[in-house]
Design a protein that fits this description.
homodimer, 25% helix, alpha+beta, four-stranded mixed beta sheet, globular
Chain lengths: 77, 77
């Protein structure tokens, strides 16, 4: 199973990306997890290790993709 | 049927996004079209009208999402 993690922080840009991009992912091939980094700050180190610099971001099998720009990760610490 | 158009310009950032993000879209729910704006310059006005500022970009049902950053659209004209 492929792995998709969508990191966001509840911002409007994040929510639109979640509703459109994360929603479009093929659930038959990908396990999709949605992580709110503002509420789950313990996931910040993991996101940083994956190369996430800002949210919203989609990490597909470990590869980070930044989708538009809502907030830098540094603003969530 | 939902509509997804992935605009790119053949750059390495574009190709990675195409192979990972565009590939992850659920083909059962989305008609996915890949457009190389360097080779199909006649599609530039349409991309601009959809709000695409840079490539790679994914337009889902008319809403643009910029994925990482390869090149500005202005560089492709």
């Amino acid at each position: 199973m492929n792995n998709a993690i969508f990191y966001h922080a509840g911002c409007p840009v994040c929510i639109e990306a979640e509703q459109k991009v994360a929603e479009a992912i093929d659930k038959a091939r990908f396990h999709v997890e949605i992580v709110h980094l503002g509420e789950e700050k313990n996931r910040l180190p993991e996101a940083e290790r994956a190369g996430v610099k800002s949210v919203p971001a989609l990490v597909l099998n470990g590869v980070p993709f930044h989708i538009n720009h809502g907030a830098n990760l540094s603003a969530l610490k």
